[in-house]
Design brief:
132 residues, five-stranded mixed beta sheet, alpha+beta, 3 helices, elongated, 23% strand
Length: 132
């Protein structure tokens, strides 16, 4: 194979694998909160979906249920641990706009799903009432 073709293939591969995802991530971070929510709802796979949006030492863990209800866990990094900064946990949904209250069943399910999600992570999300 001629070196020009190999070089073109390598450049195309790098463009698709490295550069395009970086550009997409930066564009996503610049979106307003409402548009981020719409994008995440379209990305959601299955009945429960988590997405961590990080700005370095702070961020938001997004919990999506049934592609319709969204709950946000804002967090900050303290001593190498993600600490949730939300004061009143599971009081109301963040999306849809009318912000319905959690039912007791939804509250239990959200806690269980967060526990399952935390088991997969090396850096876990700690809620306000949890100790190390």
């Amino acid at each position: 194979m001629p070196p020009a073709i190999v070089a073109a293939l390598v450049i195309a591969f790098l463009l698709c694998v490295v550069i395009v995802p970086v550009i997409n991530t930066k564009q996503f971070n610049r979106l307003p909160q409402e548009q981020k929510i719409r994008v995440l709802m379209k990305q959601a796979k299955g009945l429960v979906y988590f997405k961590n949006i990080s700005d370095g030492s702070s961020g938001t863990l997004v919990y999506i249920k049934n592609k319709r209800k969204i709950y946000l866990y804002p967090w900050v990094l303290q001593d190498g641990k993600m600490r949730c900064t939300r004061q009143h946990l599971y009081e109301k949904w963040d999306y849809p706009e009318e912000q319905p209250a959690f039912t007791e069943e939804e509250r239990i399910q959200a806690q269980e799903e967060l526990e399952k999600y935390n088991r997969k992570l090396t850096v876990k999300l700690y809620l306000n009432n949890e100790s190390d």
